[in-house]
Write the structure tokens for this entry.
Amino acid sequence: MNIFTSIRQNSVGLGLFAVLTAGLIALTHQLTEHTIEDNIVQAQLSAFNEILPADRYDNNLAEAQVLLPADPLLGSSEPVPAFIARKDGQVTAIIFETIAPGGYNGNLDLLVAIDRNGVVTGSRVISHKETPGLGDKVDLQKSQWILSFAGKSLENTSLKQWNVKKDGGTFDQFTGATITPRAVVRAVKNTLLYFNENQDALLSR
């Protein structure tokens, strides 16, 4: 066997290996794609149920997404996803994906659930880059601070009270880290303001 024959055979072998590998990758992707999608949906629904009790709705929230026009009150210059909760055909609550700009290390992504009466049923920070041990206390795994918004509204909490205590408001700040809670308080308040300004349109969806 001369060297050219050997090279040809090796090339054919490598080509077959590449084709088989690509085929296996494609097959694996196809087999796992639906599982991954299902897991994402289940994680999403689990997060929703943490901030909006499951007995408040009877529709499929994962399929109830709408895109809201960009609005500074929602912290984004792009359309923002929201999820419409219904029970017996009536809108009972809206779950907003909103952004809290101005965190210590950048933006924070939140879920804020507001019922049809304009009351926050729950909120969660779902993504952030805050400093461990300080600003990351907005994460429920680090502290229960984020639970303090449940039950709050613009009716029972004045705009002045929608601040951290250092600024004359009602919400605690973290020792050594006021910037992060200040950003989250502002974002939840602004989401309530957005809901109030657009309540009729939101509840008629």
In short: The chain has three helices and five strands. The CA atoms of residues 59 and 105 lie 37 Å apart. Confidence is low (pLDDT under 50) at residues 36-41.
